[in-house]
TrEMBL record:
<dbReference type="InterPro" id="IPR029058">
    <property type="entry name" value="AB_hydrolase_fold"/>
</dbReference>
<dbReference type="InterPro" id="IPR000383">
    <property type="entry name" value="Xaa-Pro-like_dom"/>
</dbReference>
<dbReference type="InterPro" id="IPR008252">
    <property type="entry name" value="Pept_S15_Xpro"/>
</dbReference>
<keyword id="KW-0378">Hydrolase</keyword>
<dbReference type="InterPro" id="IPR050585">
    <property type="entry name" value="Xaa-Pro_dipeptidyl-ppase/CocE"/>
</dbReference>
<dbReference type="Pfam" id="PF09168">
    <property type="entry name" value="PepX_N"/>
</dbReference>
<feature type="domain" description="Xaa-Pro dipeptidyl-peptidase C-terminal">
    <location>
        <begin position="538"/>
        <end position="792"/>
    </location>
</feature>
<protein>
    <recommendedName>
        <fullName>Xaa-Pro dipeptidyl-peptidase</fullName>
        <ecNumber>3.4.14.11</ecNumber>
    </recommendedName>
</protein>
<comment type="similarity">
    <text>Belongs to the peptidase S15 family.</text>
</comment>
<dbReference type="GO" id="GO:0004177">
    <property type="term" value="F:aminopeptidase activity"/>
</dbReference>
<dbReference type="InterPro" id="IPR008979">
    <property type="entry name" value="Galactose-bd-like_sf"/>
</dbReference>
<dbReference type="GO" id="GO:0008239">
    <property type="term" value="F:dipeptidyl-peptidase activity"/>
</dbReference>
<comment type="function">
    <text>Removes N-terminal dipeptides sequentially from polypeptides having unsubstituted N-termini provided that the penultimate residue is proline.</text>
</comment>
<dbReference type="InterPro" id="IPR036313">
    <property type="entry name" value="PepX_N_dom_sf"/>
</dbReference>
<dbReference type="InterPro" id="IPR015251">
    <property type="entry name" value="PepX_N_dom"/>
</dbReference>
<keyword id="KW-0720">Serine protease</keyword>
<dbReference type="Pfam" id="PF02129">
    <property type="entry name" value="Peptidase_S15"/>
</dbReference>
């Protein structure tokens, strides 16, 4: 077990004492009047939430160890001196570590060091030392993934703060707001924000529904910031529609006409009417009971942040159509930010014309969420909209072409073969949940989706105007908000190329950026035991939204990466790509410093029975690919690494290749070869509802990556694909003759990978990818001219 904390910020001795007094743990003159031992006893008695009766507290002390041989109450009764060993033996028990299971009672400091808990060492403890050490202990994470203070808060330690007047809130501790807002009294309300568009062709400006949950204190003078999650899924999905709309991928690749151009997508009206204003209200007229929630938002809500959800255009109770990543969808979500900032009109309901303002908001907004949600956070940030101070962009798309296409090929997101922009639009068009509303809009929607299908041009896979309109990288220079990016290095849904491009594109902007790379796939990381992610976000947003001078930008790492070799290990870096560039030549079946001679080939076709099996179970194909001996792929392998080595950045493959047809595609997988116990593919649940987000409030499941019980012989660490007719760029089609050797150069997915000494690095070159590409099963012979084939890795660092 290892706990990594990056959110504990530096404070002055005076601040520490003020904050301890603020939470009623330290009282005036106690530092001068109490001995170190008495101060320690006083602190412990005050955090005992079961009862304030001395007899009950003494019984609690009786069940805690102060030394291997003395219960804490007996130790207090004797004339013994406080030491590091005593303080941290008690600390481990307060942090829910189990004696004889998690630590040795005879050597608590060894466990403190092994687990990575922050510690204070003193040769002779003073009362001031006790205060400083206990302050640090309150900020220390326990075995169940939360700080001791948050654990105490979930037991009611700060329930008295619910009664504080609004002007005394929020309470900050170590630079972060505490859970001092009563969830039972949250205000829940709905507003309808008027956008500058008419995406359902009804001649009226689209209204966007937003659901708001905010603390009661925001009705009594406290201006609060907002965390806003833009989620097209929020009002429901059409899963059956999605299944029916999914495209058949068991079709052959085709030769492309160099003069082919896809039709432009449909445009929306620019002339439309706006709702007539009939009056203004200070109070919303609609409410809601529950809404699909992000647990990070729930954590923040108890700490004074208002939480806003909107599904945007084309969803239940809103107007418009689902446009899947278009500028209209971006502008609809931007409109929510503008209303929160005071720059846009909203109504209390859809028809009365009664306007309402977000008078309770301090005008500062952060956007949160994963996948589509994080994508829209990125998109809105590129508009430079005032009021958007920060985004937490998790597993987010920065260019939709990189989600559904790659280098002139139709390429599916992992696990969703046959999905495309039209399918996602169908799945999220939740206006179907209101039958009469859907009846009125059905024909218009059908016509729009038909236009979308043509414009996205699944037939060619080329980059075109449709995808260019959904490429947020064009507008990165407009970003004014601070950006925190979170992405899985093994995410095959939204691939790491999306976050790498965003990260690279904003490094020279005058904004703060933070990057967190984990070893998971398409997941949230706010409920990991090994990382204080929620605390990091709370510290960061306290600075960006509450205006706290808490050193958040200096405290949090610029790049934080979860190690793929050692469980529960997170390492801070300054940059993603660093180290020496390494270039390997394809030589026989090896990757060496010397170029190879001659050609090697493979045939992409499979027997029908095996083809059908692999179409049904692509994971069987993936295993067969690694074990293939040249029938449908070629593999080139390095010598065993002499030292542990870190690979960082975006690998590039250059191939001189020929196809026996006048079309073809090439794929590549970069593989870590070597027997080893690797981290589980997904985090392991080890404490259901074990993470409490406040007092009598929501919970989350505590998870963590573990080493698998059995060793495996390989792990795919990167991959890439290219159409041989798009060898110069995804928008340009070049002619290809059968058996004509051409040079293609394409990026693999970015990596940050720790290769263990004794392992080898291999690259597999093949064509059809049963997990991601079209699967035509044609008899195509591919030839590689080895002298023109290289693998380049930009960041190559030998670890000492």
């Amino acid at each position: 077990m290892k706990i990594n904390q990056f959110s504990i910020t530096s404070t002055t001795p005076q601040t520490r004492r003020q904050e301890l007094m603020q939470i009623h743990l330290l009282r005036k003159n106690e530092e001068q009047s109490l001995t170190p031992k008495a101060m320690f006893e006083t602190f412990l008695a005050r955090i005992h939430m079961a009862s304030a009766q001395p007899i009950v507290t003494k019984q609690w002390f009786h069940d805690l160890l102060a030394t291997p041989d003395l219960a804490l109450d007996d130790w207090f009764d004797q004339n013994l001196t406080l030491t590091d060993e005593v303080f941290y033996l008690v600390a481990l028990q307060l942090l829910d570590f189990e004696a004889a299971v998690d630590f040795d009672i005879t050597n608590p400091l060894a466990t403190i060091k092994k687990v990575g808990l922050p510690v204070k060492h003193y040769q002779q403890w003073t009362t001031a030392n006790v205060i400083d050490a206990f302050y640090l202990l309150l900020n220390t994470h326990n075995k169940n993934g939360q700080s001791l203070l948050d654990h105490l808060t979930s037991e009611g330690f700060l329930a008295w703060t619910y009664q504080l007047p609004a002007e005394q809130k929020p309470l900050f501790f170590n630079g972060k707001p505490l859970a001092s807002f009563d969830p039972a009294k949250f205000i829940r309300e709905v507003v309808y924000i008027e956008a500058d568009m008419d995406t359902d062709f009804d001649g009226k400006a689209d209204l966007i529904k937003a659901e708001i949950m905010r603390p009661l204190e925001s009705n009594h003078g406290l201006k609060v910031p907002v965390v806003f999650t833009a989620s097209p899924y929020n009002q429901g999905t059409n899963d059956e529609w999605g299944e029916k709309a999914t495209h058949n991928v068991n079709v052959p690749l085709k030769h492309k006409d160099a003069n082919h151009h896809a039709p432009a997508e449909e445009t929306f009206p620019t002339n439309f009417s706006r709702q007539k204003v009939t009056g203004e209200s200070q109070h919303a007229t609609e409410t809601f009971s529950t809404t699909p929630a992000y647990t990070l938002n729930n954590y923040l809500a108890a700490r004074g942040y208002a939480v806003v959800y909107s599904a945007g255009i084309g969803t239940k109770d809103s107007d418009g159509l689902q446009t899947c990543g278009s500028s209209e969808q971006t502008d609809a979500m931007k409109a929510v930010v503008e209303w929160l900032h005071g720059d846009r009109q909203a109504f209390t309901d859809r028809h009365s014309g009664t306007t309402i303002k977000a008078t309770w908001c301090n005008g500062k907004v952060a956007m949160t969420g994963r996948s589509y949600l994080g994508t829209l956070a990125t998109a809105v940030a590129t508009t430079g909209v005032p009021g958007l101070e920060a985004i937490i962009s998790e597993a987010a798309i920065s260019s939709w072409y990189d989600y559904y296409r790659e280098n002139g090929l139709v390429r599916a997101p992992g696990g969703f073969q046959g999905e495309d922009a039209d399918v996602l639009a169908d799945e999220t068009f939740s206006r179907t949940k209101r039958p009469a509303d859907y009846h009125r809009i059905e024909k218009v929607n059908d016509q729009y989706i038909a236009h979308m299908q043509k414009a996205m041009d699944r037939a060619s896979g080329n980059y075109n105007e449709f995808w260019d309109h959904r490429n947020y990288r064009h507008n990165l220079e407009n970003i004014k908000a601070a950006v925190m990016m979170v992405h899985g290095l093994n995410d095959t849904n939204v691939r790491p190329s999306n976050v790498k491009a965003l990260y690279d594109g904003i490094q020279n902007l005058p904004i703060t950026s933070k990057l967190i790379l984990h070893q998971g796939q398409h997941i949230y990381i706010n409920a990991f035991r090994s990382l204080d992610f929620s605390d990091m976000v709370n510290l960061w947003l306290a600075n960006k939204l509450w205006g706290q001078e808490n050193h958040a930008d200096d405290t949090l790492p610029n790049v934080l990466v979860q190690d793929n070799r050692t469980p529960e290990t997170w390492i801070a870096y300054d940059h993603w790509t660093a180290g020496e560039q390494k270039q390997y030549q394809f030589n026989d079946h090896r990757l060496t410093n010397l170029p190879g001679l001659g050609t090697q080939g493979f045939n992409d076709q499979q027997p029908k029975e095996k083809y059908l099996q692999w179409c049904k179970r692509p994971q069987d194909w993936a295993k067969a690919l690694v074990n293939d001996h040249g029938q449908f792929s070629r593999c080139f392998v390095t010598e065993a690494f002499n030292d542990d080595t870190l690979l960082r950045g975006t690998p590039t493959v250059t191939l001189k290749v020929a196809s026996s047809k006048n079309y073809g595609m090439i794929s590549a997988r970069l593989v870590d070869l070597g027997s080893s116990k690797r981290l589980t593919i997904s985090p392991v649940l080890f404490n259901r509802n074990g993470l409490e987000l406040g007092y009598h409030w929501k919970t989350d499941d505590l998870r963590e990556f573990k080493l698998a019980k059995e060793a495996t012989n390989y792990k795919v660490i990167s991959s890439g694909h290219i159409n041989l007719q798009n060898r110069h760029n995804p928008a340009q089609v070049n002619e290809l003759n059968a058996n004509q050797f051409v040079t293609v150069k394409f990026d693999l997915q970015p990596l940050f990978h720790h290769i263990i000494a004794g392992h080898q690095l291999g690259i597999i070159i093949y064509s059809t990818d049963y997990e991601y590409t079209l699967r035509g099963n044609e008899r195509i012979e591919y030839q590689l001219e080895l002298g023109g084939c290289q693998l380049t890795i930009p960041g190559f660092t030998i670890l000492s």
